[in-house]
Design brief:
Number of strands: 6
Structural class: mainly alpha
Strand order of the largest sheet: 1-2
Distance between the termini: 127 Å
Number of helices: 14
Number of domains: 3
Helix content: 40-55%
Oligomer: single chain
Largest sheet: 2 strands, antiparallel
Strand content: 5-15%
Length: 345
Amino acid sequence: MRLLASCRVCWRRHPLRNALLLSAFLALTVNAFWAHYEFSRLDQMPLKGEGRYITIKRGTSARQLVADLALEPVSPFWTAVWLKLHPELGQIKSGTYRIESGWLVSHALVLFSSGKEALFSVTLIEGGRIEDFIRTLNQAPYVEATLDPDDADVVRSELGLEQENIDGLFLPETYSYTAGTRDIDILRRAHRHLEEYLQKSWQGRDPGLPYKTPYEALIMASIIEKETGKADERALIASVFINRMRKGMRLQTDPTVIYGVKDRYDGNIRRADLQDDNPYNTYLIDGLPPTPIAMPGKAAIHAALHPKRSNYLYFVAKGGGAHHFSTSLDEHNRAVRRYILGKNG
């Protein structure tokens, strides 16, 4: 009772001071509740929109990102305070990121602070030429295109390649990259992968093959790549070409003729094409052409270095990507009449 009476006396003696203290206490209480509300709101704030890619430029602030991405309007003041309390969310790194539907703003900030950019992929197809690879890269999302399809000389210079013809020097694969990667840099990786795979494969090649260098094996692999319609025939087709080389027979393979006449080829090989005097016409030259005629994949390189054992010297397409293989010219001619000319007997 005495304490209560004392408080009453104190209140009566200092009414203004006590009113100010009470006001300050109430203000602090209100602000504390309001801060708790705002922080909880920011902690649970959903992203607006659907899942998508977002590119963050250098110098973009976390506070601006919160304002741009939040589903509902947010207070700049409380956002700044919230980020001060969560400094790990404010170390934003530039780049292109993938944000998903259903994420919170805080989830996105964690991603942006991690620097784990979105990965894209591009597939360079077996059997293509350098101009085909450049076109593919030009069409790939978020690749920085610096090359035109006819820029083979630029590629050769940029990568320091010795060969005048650079077809065959890039490994067809699927390559991952981040946004803004230059096309020439993906080609640089493809060339490095080709060199690494070819050298490793060359070390483990079958004995007695008629190649003097890994590059000659690469040339053969490019021919196998262009001749093969079914994967399980690669090693058998390789055996035909190797058997012919061992016997001193010309390869007589149409894809080299097509490569040699270049833009003149319109889908049909004519007698004039078979008689065209160019270094790729294997109906006229002995042995291998001077360079690869396409980009061979790993399977074609493996087939060139690990051919099946056979006595076959000829093959002809019989439809569906498959071939008929023959050991003699008479058998081959019969197969040509049957599968190409549509005649039996």
